[in-house]
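Example: FecR domain-containing protein.
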Amino acid sequence: MTQPEQYLEALLAKKEWTDEECRWLLHYLEHTPAAELKAMLLEAFLERNIPVPDAAVQENILARIHAQMQPFQETKVVPMRRSRKWLVAAAIAGGVVIAGGVLRFSLQQRGNNTQPSLAVALQHGDIAPGGNKARLVLGNGKSVVLDQAADGAIASEENIRKQNESLIYKEPEAQLPQMSYNTLITPRGGQYRVQLSDGTKVWLNAASSLEYPVAFNGSEREVKLSGEAYFEVAADAFKPFYVTMNGMKVQVLGTAFNIKAYADEKEFTTTLTSGAVRVISSGKQVTLKPGQQSTFTPSSLALSMSDGDPEGAVAWKNGIINFRNDELSAVMRELSRWYDVDVVYDNTMTGNIHVTGAMHKQENLSQALKILELTANVHFTVERRTIKVSQ
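Written out as structure tokens, the predicted fold is:
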């Protein structure tokens, strides 16, 4: 039995759960479909010879579990899928008392919790999460650190302003004599939002850059991306929108999609949430429908299409770090970008470890690593801004 299995089995045998334990359980309750959860709930009642309550009471049970656990949802983790039935059974047998349709759910903090906590071990040297940080490079070469700039016009540019930690461009009243380009750059530990002059909205993830014209002249709109960004493109049938990357181009006609194209990743992915896009590379192309994803491999120029995970692809924009059977190395690259840390592996690492889980991006590094320790059966030590991974 692996460490996560041992932890989960011990957890579900308890009658009371600590804050950290609640975070495990809450993610199941939030991400299990209602019909599936209700079916497991009924099965647990039958196994314990408990009279099955009517539909209204069943809904009340689920709603009250959510309501009681809601304050503890700062971090979310996905335990093993096969244990969902255990969760419902434990909730009924250990912490849920039904009497006259009223639910009582015990969530008291345990004072004698002796399980080692990485968060406590690092409390004097913890690393805060990233935030809204970026640098804007203007066409004249001047650089503006946006997280240090006040709201209002940027560098006396009449059509560029900073507002509520976002960068907003407006269409110039007169067409500019020549194309002028700006570049928005986010560092590791940074993210930023920009609204282009045509109304297109772009969310730029950490360690990324976007080059774009101050105003879109001519018959096309084209921007260049390095890293990851989510786009909501303003529709304009007469001016197609293009996003270009190293060896790949995405053609857009008014839509919303996510592109992940970091130089240190083996593959570039484009995931469509609405509308339609055409992904083009080396004479090959695929057209995506909502819910589909293209994968481009820069080393071989291979381009393919498959069903995607739109919710997971854009989770970062919504404040969640999300993993679904991803390799541990990919997970650590994600954390490295967001927390601005380096990652090294010692010689105890063997085989491919895959991780499924989710956490809020506003957690400190210690809590994020604690979650991974429990889900991936690995161990972390942190020295300054370097994480060492071992088994």
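Confidence is low (pLDDT under 50) at residues 1-5, 66-84, 90-124.
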